[in-house]
Amino acid sequence: MSREGYQVPTASAGSGAVARGSTGMQDTRSSVMSYLCGDCGGSVHLGKDSTVACPHCAGRVLYKERTKRMVQFEAR
């Protein structure tokens, strides 16, 4: 097939196709992440454009919380 004959596929709203780079999840759930403060140990919920600082102690070292899912690795 030649380059001139190629047409870029378009995703319509009703086709159910997921846009490139999208996970298909709703943005409301994935826009807020919870972290643990490295100084006071408090739980911090940050949005996409939030300042990276603990509201309790103004600490700037935040750790991502460990997942609740079971993670299993196979050793060989």
UniProtKB/TrEMBL annotation:
It is found in: Nucleus. The keyword Cell membrane does not apply. GO terms for molecular function: DNA binding; DNA-directed RNA polymerase activity; zinc ion binding. Gene3D superfamilies: RNA polymerase ii, chain L. Its main location: nucleus. GO terms for cellular component: RNA polymerase I complex; RNA polymerase II, core complex; RNA polymerase III complex. InterPro entries: RNAP_P/RPABC4, RPABC4, RPABC4/Spt4. Belongs to the archaeal Rpo12/eukaryotic RPC10 RNA polymerase subunit family. This is Metallothionein-I gene transcription activator. It comes from Clonostachys chloroleuca.
